[in-house]
Amino acid sequence: MTEPSQLPPFLVWLFVTAIVVVINTTTQDFWKSFKDAPDEHDPGPWCEEDRPNDFLREPANAFSDLAYFALAMKIVTHAQSDYTAAKSGTQPANFVAANYWVSVIGVVLNIIHFLGSFMNHACRCHTGHRMDVFGMYVAIFYLIWVIFCSLVVKILAPYPDMLTKTDLTKNLPALYAVMGFGAICFWFLSDLYYHDHRCKSREDFVVTGLVIVGLGMSVVIARLSSSEKRKKSSSRWIIIAVVALGLGKIAQEMDQNKILCYPKSLIQGHAIWHVATAIAMYCGYMHLRSL
């Protein structure tokens, strides 16, 4: 039976999915203004066939973006339970569970990623492309940001007096400033067209760099865990994330290089990448909750 706290976010996801289906089956030329703007022409290098007059010009790639929205809704359930625990006076040792606002930020950033990637594949326009890449960058950076905060808490745990003086909840403006500065940098880094020869190399470099930094910090914080059970749990989440990322990357490279390319198919390599990265990001989030 579904828990009450989990039902509303699931219904929101179902409602959004239903809206997408209805608009796609009843609307023609939804993106005409973008199609008519020369600076918005920015089709991706994907295998899937373009349906120029449909709401979802790349239906498989666009529908698979709902995985990011599902990720955001799943984090909502954790934020709800953390908020309820905080109201009851419970104080978990885990940084994420003890601060429900951390999950709320994750929800917002993953919804931004969902909207950007969805628009990218629905309209095949530059605005969508830029929002997609920006959302991807900040969603990964969010996990690194949370790892950093968790590391501070872990390192200072043996020194309760010092931890009290550096209570992260009392330094929210500084934490938000770090996230905001990163977001500004990523917004400018995301402004490249697909046909620009720098596009793929820059996106691969930034994403790979962020993932490597995140994984490295994850290993460090996992080793600092005092509980052997927690170490095993957090390591399991990391392994699943790495496997999902690896499989997703293989599918994406095959898609871009038109290997086993079936343009009209409902199963696309880039769509698999969306689902795989959503799984990986959820594993990253759960890794941080398991410490």
Describe the structure.
With 291 residues, the protein is mainly alpha-helical. 72% of the residues lie in helices and 0% in strands. The protein contains twelve helices and no strands. The protein has helices spanning 7-26, 32-35, 59-63, 66-87, 95-98, 100-123, 126-156, 160-165, 172-189, 198-223, 228-256, 269-289. The chain is globular, with a radius of gyration of 20 Å.
Mean pLDDT metric: 88
Helix- and strand-based class? mainly alpha
Helix and strand pattern: HHHHHHHHHHHH
Number of helices: 12
Approximately how much beta-strand content do the residues carry? under 5%
Rg over CA atoms: 20 Å
Enumerate the spans where pLDDT stays under 50 for 5 or more consecutive residues: 1-6
Distance between the termini: 28 Å
Q: Tell me the major beta sheet.
A: none
Number of strands: 0
Shape: globular
- State the helical fraction: over 70%
